[in-house]
């Protein structure tokens, strides 16, 4: 994967120059169509895809749920899980922990990042059955005893990290894993730690500033 800090969708050079101006109207129509079809496809995944896994695949015929005990945010949660069910789906749709976001659903964007035994992990690419007794932490687990924000969350707000906010829980959970392992990272180390978290709003500098501010307060 390219470093999201330095990768811009237009850097290939395609779609630039005079030809774009000539084709402006048709491109606009094309983009409108893509957005419309993408919205329909995206919603149909969640409406009709069931909770078999992370994609629109249906559970395999005859697949049966098994009762598992998961340690999530310090609590043991008992939950019935299909063989092909991903952790993201279990967290969101069975345990109600919707702070973990689903976006690409294929291990490319980092929106679904949680921390498992101290390691930032894509929950959309992790089978719940493989988690076992490991400690899972989600954005909900950062809340203080009186509902106060975690210092990392506050640093993200102070540096205006969230724009639309969709990638923010994943960015924060990657930061949690980073700062627990390395409380005083360089900016390059922070960039590397968050390189698996894409931000469609392009707020990368804000997020890096947030990590460095959180590290100063750690
Ligand atoms: S939703 Fe998991 S990496 Fe994109
Ligand atoms: S703040 Fe919008 S995707 Fe990152």
Features:
binds FE2/S2 (inorganic) cluster; globular; 5 strands; Ubiquitin-like (UB roll); alpha+beta; 218 residues; 11% strand; five-stranded mixed sheet; 37% helix
Structural class: alpha+beta
Please state the second-level CATH architecture of the domain at 66-217.
Roll
Q: What string gives the helices and strands in order?
A: HHEEHEEEHHHH
CATH topology descriptor of the domain at 66-217: Ubiquitin-like (UB roll)
Q: Using the CA coordinates, give the radius of gyration.
A: 19 Å
Cα-to-Cα separation, first versus last residue: 30 Å
Task: Report the CATH C-level class of the domain at 66-217.
Answer: Alpha Beta
Ligands bound to this protein structure:
FE2/S2 (inorganic) cluster
Kindly state the number of beta strands.
5
Residue windows where pLDDT falls under 50 for at least 5 positions: 1-25, 30-50
Q: What percentage of the residues does DSSP assign to strands (E)?
A: 5-15%
Mean pLDDT: 82
The CATH homologous superfamily of the domain at 66-217 is named Beta-grasp domain
Proportion in helices: 25-40%
Main sheet characteristics: 5 strands, mixed
């Amino acid at each position: 994967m390219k470093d999201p800090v330095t990768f811009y969708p237009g850097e290939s050079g395609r779609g630039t120059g005079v030809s774009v101006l000539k084709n402006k109207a048709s491109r606009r129509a094309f983009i409108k169509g893509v957005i419309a079809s993408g919205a329909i496809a995206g919603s149909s995944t969640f409406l009709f895809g069931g909770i078999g896994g992370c994609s629109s695949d249906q559970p395999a015929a005859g697949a049966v749920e098994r009762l598992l005990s998961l340690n999530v945010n310090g609590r043991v949660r008992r939950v019935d899980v299909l063989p092909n069910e991903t952790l993201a789906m279990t967290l969101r749709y069975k345990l109600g922990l919707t702070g973990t976001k689903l976006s690409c659903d294929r291990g490319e964007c980092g929106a679904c990042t949680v921390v498992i035994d101290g390691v930032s992990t894509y929950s959309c690419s992790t089978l719940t059955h493989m988690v076992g007794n490991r400690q899972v932490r989600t954005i909900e687990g950062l809340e203080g005893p009186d509902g106060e924000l975690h210092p990392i969350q506050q640093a993200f707000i102070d540096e205006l990290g969230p724009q639309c906010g969709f990638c923010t829980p994943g960015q924060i959970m990657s930061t949690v894993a980073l700062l627990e392992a390395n409380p005083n990272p360089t900016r390059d180390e922070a960039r590397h730690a968050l390189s698996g978290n894409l931000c469609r709003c392009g707020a990368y500098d804000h997020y890096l500033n947030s990590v460095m501010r959180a590290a100063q307060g750690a």
